[in-house]
Design a protein that fits this description.
This protein has 117 residues and is mostly beta strands. It is built from no helices and 10 strands. The relative contact order is 0.38. Keywords: Glycoprotein, Secreted, Signal. InterPro entries: DGR2-like_dom, Pectin_Meth_Modulator. Residues 7-113 form the DUF642 domain. It is found in: Cell envelope; Secreted.
């Protein structure tokens, strides 16, 4: 399976929040794993994706060269109820290197949440 083919590009800072509510078991530890990258579309520079799950946060720094690179990260969180919201957004605004009128940003893909062992 190829990375980032079904990804979501976060193009507008906090205004580009994406969230989902998951069914969870209260007080159960979970792992969340996801991929961060760029769309190979000329978007470049230092990027930051912030991921939230329950009361936990992970900030993922990513240096984009606009060449389609990616990295996979993970973190643990503790569910606080029967439902837990996971949220992602880009901390910064970016434009393409040859088109300053077009917003762009980091991609997120392959988000997986599973019980911790």
């Amino acid at each position: 399976m190829s990375h980032l083919e079904g990804a979501i590009e976060l193009i507008a800072g906090r205004e580009s929040v994406i969230a989902q509510i998951l069914r969870t078991v209260p007080n159960k530890e979970c792992n969340m794993k996801f991929t961060v990258g760029d769309a190979k579309n000329g978007c470049h520079g230092s990027m930051m994706v912030e991921a939230f799950a329950a009361k936990d946060t992970l900030k993922v720094a990513f240096k984009s060269e606009g060449k389609g690179k990616f990295k996979t990260v993970s973190f643990k969180f503790r569910a606080i109820g029967n439902r837990t919201r996971i949220t992602f957004y880009s901390s910064f605004y970016h434009t393409r290197i040859h088109d300053y009128g077009s917003l762009c940003g980091p991609l997120i893909d392959q988000v997986v949440v599973y019980p911790a062992a």
